Amino acid sequence: MKEVPVVLPEDEVRMHEEDRKDLDRAKEKNRETTKAAKRALRVARETQEVAEHTLAALDGQTEKINKLDGKMVDMKEDVKNSESYLRYITRACVCCSCFVKDPTIKEEGHWSKEVKKQAAIEKKAKALAKDKGKGKAEVERTFSETGRPDKLKVVGEMVPMKVVGGEDLKEIDAEFYVQDKALDEISSIVGNLQGMSKTMGEEIAKQNVMIDELDTKATPLKDRIRDMNTRTRLNKIHLKKESNSSVINDVGSTLIKTMK
């Protein structure tokens, strides 16, 4: 049976029936590619949104760690005042305690050394972070100034069939335009994600240093509080013994007076 050619009215290009079927299949594949590009773009946008929220959460976490460091200094001052009150009470109750060496003097010197060490480490960490990478604001500014990075390379050029024209060509061109636009935006998002991931790594490294230093500060403070609790319990026991001996002396004096 002889094949009947199909005439395209737009440009009068003749195509056989088999070629027309191939063209329809190619157009269908092209539409599927466009849908896949749109899905990839949607995933890229969602990923960028999650990364932005994560970076904001890291910034908030750094502020909380800084506040905790300030609270730790306040706790140190409170413990210092409590130790002063405890020394006063001890000296008022036990006279010989005035000749005993204050055990907190050594802890004060140790705390001062730790504070100086912490300040030096924080200064070094800030300088390293400044030289090593850019912050979130600088990353965003860089991308706004330089524009989108080079678009991703597409494997294989999708060239329309030369025998196609008219509405078919317009449809294919429109699909190509949507795909190219989606790839441009995906490429830009990938560049932004690279900058944000670098900023996140630097922020996490900075927080790790801060947390280690907080632990260094908390350890001697915990020991001082434990020592204060021990001394307070000993003072209570001493006062209780003195109170009992005083009662016995009063009873003995009363009995002696009665016998006389």
Automatic annotation (TrEMBL):
One of its GO terms (biological process) is protein transport. The keyword Heme does not apply. Keywords: Protein transport, Transport. This is t-SNARE coiled-coil homology domain-containing protein. Residues 173-235 form the T-SNARE coiled-coil homology domain. Residues 1-36 are annotated as: Disordered. It comes from Chloropicon primus. GO terms for cellular component: plasma membrane. Gene3D superfamilies: 1.20.5.110. It comes from the Eukaryota. Belongs to the SNAP-25 family. Residues 11-35 have a biased composition (Basic and acidic residues). InterPro entries: T_SNARE_dom (IPR000727).
